[in-house]
Amino acid sequence: MTTDTPPAETPIQRALRLKQAALDARPKPPRGGKFQRQQAARVATGASKPWMSR
């Protein structure tokens, strides 16, 4: 890098900021509730072996 002061925002920083804004604008999945419990149960220890369940 040179001793010159960099611009306020580089093109990469600008692209990252725009990307983050676009991601934040998307609808978010619901937090908590039945769906999240299902996702947690799917990765439980016996989830991949249904015949091992009681």
Share of helical residues: 40-55%
pLDDT average, as an integer? 74
Count every helix, treating DSSP H or I runs of 4 or more residues as helices. 2
End-to-end Cα distance: 64 Å
Largest sheet: none
- What proportion strand? under 5%
Q: Mind telling me the C-alpha Rg?
A: 22 Å
Order of helices and strands: HH
Structural class: mainly alpha
- β-strand number: 0
Shape: elongated
Low-pLDDT stretches are none
Architecture overview:
With 54 residues, the protein is mostly helical. It contains two helices and no strands. It has helices at 11-25, 33-42. The longest helix has 15 residues, at 11-25. The chain is elongated, with a radius of gyration of 22 Å.
Give short descriptive properties of this protein.
54 residues, single chain, mainly alpha
